[in-house]
């Protein structure tokens, strides 16, 4: 029982750290009305482990803090990632649907943050299109690619205690 808790926390912490690193390293692409946040590719990880859910949420909070995001973005952007991760976990038995929840959550939530939080004076439907396109690249193209590669090594990388 104790080993399972330690493994869960370790996996969540590693995923959070990876999310933060990817957000900061690719910061110019991670923020704004046209964004391809490479870290969002990690939202497929709930397919392998439920530890990815808190890991992604914490990673997004820390990544947004480190990236200089405003409080509204830190909160709602992280909630969008959490909703996406929960949805990905719920769809884990439908491999090719796993990237859809984070795409939808961010496409709907982030444009409102950009408009009301950052004062970006573009139509919200247009920003839904730009954010959604970036999410498709991050979650579907990169995320699904990562999922297919990681699936070969899941018994090694995502061990259970």
Characterize the structure shown:
This protein is mostly helical and 161 residues long. The chain has a single domain (2-29, 36-157), classed as Arp2/3 complex 21 kDa subunit ARPC3 (Orthogonal Bundle). Helix content is 70%, strand content 0%. It contains seven helices and no strands. It is globular and about 50 Å long. It starts with a helix and ends with a helix. The model has no long low-confidence stretch (mean pLDDT 92).
Write the layout of secondary structure elements.
Layout: H1 2-25, H2 27-30, H3 52-66, H4 71-90, H5 100-117, H6 124-151, H7 154-157
**Binned strand content:** under 5%
CATH fold-level name? Arp2/3 complex 21 kDa subunit ARPC3
Query: By helix and strand content, what is the structural category?
Result: mainly alpha
- The radius of gyration computed from the alpha-carbon positions, rounded to a whole number of angstroms, is 15 Å
The helix/strand order is: HHHHHHH
For the secondary structure, the number of strands is 0
User: What overall geometry do the principal axes of the alpha carbons give?
Assistant: globular
In the residues, how many domains can be counted?
A: 1
Number of discrete helical segments: 7
**Runs with pLDDT <50, length 5+?**
none
CATH level-1 class: Mainly Alpha
CATH architecture: Orthogonal Bundle
Helicity, as a percent range: over 70%
Largest sheet: none
- Average pLDDT number: 92
Separation, N- and C-terminal Cα atoms: 8 Å
